[in-house]
Amino acid sequence: MKYADVLDKTTPATTTVSKRAGVSDLPAAGEPFLWGMGGALVVGLMMIAGFLVLVFWNGITTFIPKPIEVVTLASGEVVAGEPYRSESYRVGSDKIKGLGPDIQKKIAANDGFAMRTLYRTGNYDLYGDDFRWVSDYEITKAARPVEMVFIERLEWGAFIGSITSLSVDGKNIPADQLSPQQLTQFLEDARGRWNKIRRIERIEIGNINHEIEGERLRLKRVAIDKGVDSPAFKAVEAEVEAGSAALQHAYEKLAAEATETRTADANFTITLREIGGREKTLRLSEIVRLYHANDLGTVEWLGIYLSRWAEFLTDEPREANTEGGVLPAIFGTFAMTVLMAVLVAPFGVVTALYLREYAKQGRLVSIVRISVNNLAGVPSIVYGVFGLGFFAYIMGASIDQLFYPERLPNPTFGTGGLLWSSLTLALLTVPVVIVATEEAISAVPRSMREGSLACGASKWQTIRNIVLPRAMPGILTGLILAMARGAGEVAPLMLVGVVKLAPELPIDGYFPFIHLERSFMHLGFHIYDVGFQSRNSEAGKPMVFVTTLLLIGLIFVMNITAIVVRNRLKQRFAGSKF
Amino acid sequence: MSTKTAAPPVLPAAMGKRRDRTTRKSVVVKDKIADWTITIGGMAVILAVAGIMVFLLQVVVPLFTGGTVGARSSYALPHTSQRAVATLVDEYKAIATMVMADGKIVTFHAPTGKGLQAPAFDFGGESATAFGSTLDHADVAFGFADGSVRFGELKMVARVIPEVDIPSGLTRIDDRDSTDGRSIYRRLPGNQARVSSVEVTLEDPQNISDQGSAIVALDYRVSGGANAGVKSFVTVDAGGVVRLTRAESKRNMLTGKSRTVIETSLLPSLPQGTQVERVILTERADQVFAVSGNTIFRYDTRNFETPVLAETARVLPEGVKVTAFGFLIGEQSIVVGGSNGAVDVYFRLPRPNALGSDGYELVAAHRLEPQSGAVVGVSASLRGKTFATLDDRGNVWLRHSTSEQTLIRFDRKNEQPDTVALAPRANGILALEQGRAATLLDFDVPHPETTLATVFGKAWYEGYDGPTYTWQSSSGTDSFEPKFSLIPLIFGTIKATFYSLLFAVPIALLGAIYTSEFLDGRVRAVVKPAMEMMASLPSVVLGFIAALILAPIVETWIGALILAFVLIPLALVAGAYLWQLLPLDQANRLAGVPKLGFQFAQVAVTMFLSYSIAPQFETVFFGGDFKNWINGQSGNSAPFLFLALLPVSFGAVAWIISRFYGERIEALMLSRDKTGAAMLDLGRWGVILVGSLVLAFALAQGLAALGIDARGGVIDTYVQRNTLVVGFAMGFAVIPLIYTLADDALTAVPEHLRAASLACGATPWQTSIRIILPTAISGVFAAIMIGMGRAVGETMIVVMAAGNTALIDWNLFNGLRALSANIAVELPEAVKDDTLYRVLFLAALTLFAMTFVINTVAEVIRQRFRKRSVQL
Fold first, then answer.
1. Which of A20, A484, B169, B849 has the fewest C-beta atoms lying within 10 Å of its C-beta?
2. How many DSSP H helices and E strands does chain A contain?
């Protein structure tokens, strides 16, 4: 640009008179300072590049099935696990003393550093730990035996070991007589049984519980409205009692069915042996995924990788959120963001219209503008505090007293929830929409407005038919940017409705289908929770990385959409000026 | 939209008809509605900002207002003429009790004084000469003239029953309460009632004083669980003998029988003629305080067999007597009331050269506002450090020890009160006049512990060496005193902001100048969005990466990091001098992307170099391990001082050379061709570098020899989640913001200024630094302010990466606790309208105010900049 151009043009001149004294005035060119500035820019760019590479690399490689290495240590101990990562570390001085002389020499030659590898050993139920550091100098032998299997379980995390035998309906099948197809078939059957039990317990029994709760609340409501002695109450009471007998019956039937399936399921077990020789018997239905990690073909490998992604995107979390999927969090983030957009759009657009089209440009407008700027600058956590104190504790509590007296003292709207979270974030993001809308409105040429008014259209008709349609792409851009900002915000949500594990989604099959009062899960909070609140942050890390990838991906897609929309808008206006 | 209001006016006019000019009604109505809605919407934004502020204020204000005084009822009491030895009110202010010296108990309905029947302590006709009890008065002890002591229990029993279980035939007392003659039945919401009554038990007498001399002062404590109770009591008899007795009952788990072991220890005798008036002991019976005149005698009884008289403290001036004396909850603070009206709070603190022989000393931590008459009564709350004092003129003041404020003054005239009892929840006071009449005062003081001084100033908390700024909002025990000073949190916010700006501002500003003034348009079109993309990274992600990935790496490679901070600038400058060696045409040809590429390579190579020689660097500079060094375990201060002094000495040497040889070198350079001049320049730089190395080394050795240590202060003990990591992570959030806004401000400088400067022969560097930057400076400054606003309010990064320790120190390698993080961590647990809840709202308000000021300043500066750039 500017200087490059200028210099290019002057180059011939300078070379011809290169003996001119001024040319060698090096301090004037400030080269060292330029390099300092360039270096600063480079550092900034490297930060963003490094960050993205870190997140993408870790996020994408997390679900890759890794081989299982069996290493024999100098102490005679055998460790089996997925090599997780390696690093160079400084060996503690007390540790060095206990080592052999040649190892000591090696470490000393390396300035006191040595390499070590973190193995994911699994088997938390047997060892109380699922990771183990092994220093390179400890290893005497490393192998990758074919028979090692990697098993993801519903409980206790991964199991690493080998299959001893299978018990199918009381029949024992040793591992060497078991074909892979058979094993797959058994596992699939077990999965089917497990899904059946889950369906009965979660959905069918859940339905009955929901009905019983509804009846109970109905009765309580009548008691509050009409009094315990009123005939209306007596009538409802009789009705409820009759109904509950039927429900109780249905419940017992389902419970019996579930127990029966469970008992049948207990006959299908697998016996495993970990590398230290200890045996462990599991029900087949407890196994989520089983593979021979050191004996994978490309297709199998890809299948496992993809099935893990599928599980992540479509399943519910397990094991204190460190395994399984994040569907409720995706759903919660989505519902909250959409609701926020619905709330923020009218408010932002109306304010922008006021500023641009209605208000006289005077002191009042400048106060509104300063207010908007301040709203944009207020820390998000302050909105959270406001949301909790005002929306949940004051507005919510009043709503509870008016409409849900039968549920008190349990709060319905009087605590954090989807609606309050969306409202809080709407307040947080409204400046983004206002500023974007204002820009878009001011970009609509004055001539078009005047033309419309001259044709006799009223002010609102002009806005409705001329200004808003042309400003729409700009407004959408603002809205998308607001959604991107809202989707990434966590701090205020921690106060107004996000929870680590929400038992029910905010949208389900029960009337009124959208439950604005329910607390929900959120991808951003999921990252915080799994990374910081789980039993073992190392075990949670892969999940956090994948969730991070998902969240950043979501936000980048929104941002890029906004940029594309903005560019389209610019093109359109470039052509439509008159 | 389908309302075609008017056809072109030409037509009807031409036809000679009058046109119908009325607009359709629906259009007018819609227009009006739109007018109103939109105007209201616009106003709503102002309301929202004001509303947030007002709402936060409204929640916060009750922290600093005193209490509200409620109903006050006075009444005469039935049939008694004696002085009460103890007076108490139950938790719900339903029932009040006086214990008389002869063991009789007068019980009455607290709000009205209606008498109730009550059991009595049966002393067999004798009268107690001394009385002692635990702080809640539930366990009582009486001393008698024959030297014996009897223990008892005085229980205020309250249980909740359903409405249907209320017996019939109750006498109504007032609209809430009724009685069956013994108990008070109070109706509760939800069809329930609470029954309050008094129950007593009395044990057999135990002989304590062997000569049978009368007990004159007594205190009593019970500790331990249900199966193994320890009763401790201290007695003073008429002969001046002080005894500490411990009765330990153990229940045999097999037989169920309990066995009591009684041990008595004679405390060292007091000076001749000392008349002990009061004596108190702590719950664990490790300290005994006896009062005589203006003196407190403190016994250290931690060793039961060999108690010592540890300290004799004169707490009041000569001639003034201690007239009221008692513990506050927690039994560390002692309230001392004097006959001159003084009310002081003492606690025992370890002190060098302490007066006490055990290394402790009674320190007057709080001197509260004196009362006009002699203080005759003290009653402590069972929740917090609130207590009531009564003077001989009948004035009752409610006070708080830590905040030193007088919450409520309850001034009365011409009455002769002798006892005062504070309700356990510190929401009511019962004052008695010679057992003849009583007054119950209701009040509500929800936040006695907070004043502006305790929240924003230093407060002297129990057990602390002196007044401190402390934030510690909760703990496991009941007697814990929450400490709500916002100063450590405000400090944490400032510290995080300062260090992150220290890192972010140079990178963002230098990068912005380079982008706007020296980068090719096409490159800029890529670079700027890339940097802006950084702004959209969610801060929870930044926090996670910082805390779980970066913090361990930084901890391991801290040496490499320090080295990189030194080497990268050096390498870049060296690169620049080498670049100057290029012939001008080549330099111009490579000026765009290739140059940036070189810089990129240089930074990358230097980083790798730092990484690979870090172990050697640590060995040479920090004696092998940086963390050991920084904890002061190894090495001396010289190497670090050398690094820190390097920039200073570089500046000094550069100044000296340009001051004395500058003109000569410049003349020399001008006489050569470009390459020659560049060689000369490189040589000069080399000389400055070597010179500054030598100078820095000499200075560092000198300072180290003088005993100056860089450790302590900015550089101190290393913690994994520290400010360095926070500053780096916050850089991701702040750099793009400052960068974009500064770049916008720089590009907004009119092109003709740039062109004019270049046309006058200025180099691009001179133009950018002398023309563009000064013109855009206010815009750039506003950019920094906005970045600062963001750093102040950032939450998730500090929650996750800062360690959340509320300390006041500038140590770069230690953590911090910021206002925002504190709110995020503690508010979900806070109870609505609790003190903590309101203090956290105050924290939010403080944050709001900080960002409000920063943003408004930025906005004002930006508007001025806009005006100026329009004028240009």
1. B169
2. 21, 13
Quote the strand ranges of B94-190, DSSP E: 95-100, 105-109, 115-116, 128-133, 139-144, 148-162, 171-172, 177-179, 184-188
Rounded CA-CA distance B765/B455 in Å is 51
B681 and chain A in contact, CB less than 8 A: yes
Tokens of B715: 């550089």
CA nearest A88 in B: which residue?
B556
A55 within domain boundaries: no
What are the tens digits of pLDDT across the range B681-711? 888 889 999 999 999 999 888 888 887 777 7
**Do B793 and A28 count as a contact with CB atoms less than 8 A apart?**
no
Angle CA B665–B517–A438, to nearest 5:
155
Query: Mean pLDDT for chain A?
Result: 83
Residue A552: Cβ within 10 Å count? 22
Q: Note whether residue A315 is domain-resident.
A: no
Across the interface, whether the CB atoms of B673 and A359 are under 8 A apart is answered no
Domain of B816, in residue numbers: 488-559+709-871
Angstroms from B168 CA to nearest CA on chain A: 21
Residue the block writes with tokens 């003349």: B667
A510 CB-near residues (< 8 Å, 6+ apart): A210
Give the span between the Cα atoms of B648 and B660, in whole angstroms. 18
Chosen domain end from B685, B706, B727: B706
User: Is residue A118 predicted with pLDDT exceeding 70?
Assistant: yes
- Domain enclosing residue A200, as ranges: 171-266
User: Which residues between 137 and 196 in chain B have a beta carbon less than 8 angstroms from any beta carbon of chain A?
Assistant: none
- Interface ipTM: 0.86
Contact between B132 and B218 (Cβ < 8 Å): yes
More confident residue, B732 or A574: B732
B555: CATH: 1.10.3720.10
* Exposure on the CB side of residue B506, measured as CA atoms within 13 A: 15
To the question of pTM greater than 0.90 for the whole model, the response is no
Q: pLDDT at residue A24 above 60? A: no
Predicted local distance difference test score (pLDDT) of residue A277:
82
Q: How far apart are CA B799 and CA A491, in angstroms?
A: 9
Domain boundary among B690, B706, B722: B706
| Of A46, A353, A355, Cβ closest to residue B603 | A46
C-alpha dihedral (A228, A229, A232, A236), degrees to nearest 10: 50
Kindly tell me if the per-residue pLDDT of B298 is higher than 70: yes
- Rounded CA separation A15/B673 (Å): 11
Lookup: tokens for B362: 């009674």
Number of domains in chain A: 3
DSSP sequence for A152-199 = EESSSSEEEEEEEEEEETTEEEEGGG--HHHHHHHHHHHHHHHHHHHI
Distance from CA of B51 to the nearest CA of A (A): 10
Domain boundary among A224, A241, A266: A266
C-alpha B548/C-alpha A59 separation (Å) is 15
SS3 at position B234: strand
Nearest residue, CB atoms, A355 vs list B42, B507, B820 = B42
Residue B12: band (very low, low, confident or very high) from pLDDT cuts 50, 70, 90:
very low
For B106, other C-beta atoms within 10 Å of its C-beta total 23
The pLDDT value recorded for residue A535 is 67
Q: Is B577 in Cβ contact with A38 (below 8 Å)? A: no
Over the stretch B473-503, which tens digit does the pLDDT of each residue have? 876 666 678 888 999 999 999 999 999 999 9
Query: Are residues A226 and A120 part of one domain?
Result: no
Distance CA B422, CA A159 (A): 63
**For residues B756 and B851, is the Cβ–Cβ distance under 8 A?**
no
Of all residues in chain A, the one with the smallest CA distance to B28 is A458
